[in-house]
Amino acid sequence: MGVIKQRGILFAALAASFWAISGILGQSLFTDYNFRADWLVSVRLFFSGIILLGLAKGWKKEAVFAPFKKKRDLAALLIFSVFGMFAVQLTYFKTIELSNASFGTIIQYTGPFFVILYESFKQRKVPSFLTILLLFTTALGVVFIATKGEFTNLSISAGALVWGIGSAVSLAFYSLQPRRLLATYGSFVTVGWGMLFGSIVSNLLQPMWQTSGIFTTGSMVSIFLVVTIGTALAFLLYLSSLQYISSSLASTLTAFEPLLATVFSIVVFSLPLTLFEVVGFLLVLGSILLIQKKL
């Protein structure tokens, strides 16, 4: 394996690790410091958007206001901001708030299946047998996780399950809708404006200057790390990895984020796992890794 490829793998792996850490820090902010998911989303989107646009302008030398010149592109960017960027962030952190980082991450990563189902419907083509089998395997894994094997009772709240499914659907939309924008304006400009416009919607619902959270040195450090390490730097590393390895390999590596989130949850929060939950995580993670090859 060449040094260049190793560098790409390292960048993608670090991105997955930082995203997983972001989820863990979010859970800590919710449980230990009484912050709310919608407040954290308002802060995360606003400051991360500014950071990414600043990098696009100062480092990448990109025309950050280019999308504003075409009404069609601006409208598409606004749609992405609300139903893609804002929705995927809110549903993800609400799921964590109502359950834990491990469950919130694993269920969001079932999003690629919704991408495949949408494209099959759009093309009026029945999904392949393998896709159907993997979809069933994923659903079975989620059931194992949500019930811990007690199939008449949910160990995860119904609210967490609903928000989690919403997170997966939002991730699918997030992956599909901005493709033309990304090809035209690049990732930094598209995602940067998506975050900043999304933060406007988020702050209308939950202003970041209004919170019941407890501000301490620890909570402030966690918020700072969620914005910088868990969002801006993770995104930068993932994009940088694409310069050295294929997008399929990069996406496969980031699919390990749910596994990392689970490991971190066990270490940090002493998360107990039953045999059914372990099997469920393996079923979902295995299905995700296999389905990545179809995208």
From TrEMBL:
EamA domain sequence ranges: 7-146, 160-291
Bilayer disposition of the protein: Multi-pass membrane protein
Transmembrane segments: 36-55, 75-92, 98-117, 129-147, 153-174, 181-201, 213-237, 249-269, 275-291
Pfam families assigned to the protein according to its UniProt record, in alphabetical order: EamA
Main localization, broad class: membrane
Keywords noted in UniProt: Membrane, Transmembrane, Transmembrane helix
Annotated localization: Endomembrane system
Coiled coil regions, renumbered to chain: none
InterPro entries: EamA_dom, EmrE-like
GO cellular component assignments: membrane
Family to which the UniProt record says this protein belongs: Belongs to the EamA transporter family.
PANTHER family noted in UniProt: ACYL-MALONYL CONDENSING ENZYME-RELATED, MOBA-LIKE NTP TRANSFERASE DOMAIN-CONTAINING PROTEIN
Protein's name according to its UniProt entry: EamA domain-containing protein
Organism of provenance: Enterococcus pallens ATCC BAA-351
Taxonomic placement: Bacteria, Bacillati, Bacillota, Bacilli, Lactobacillales
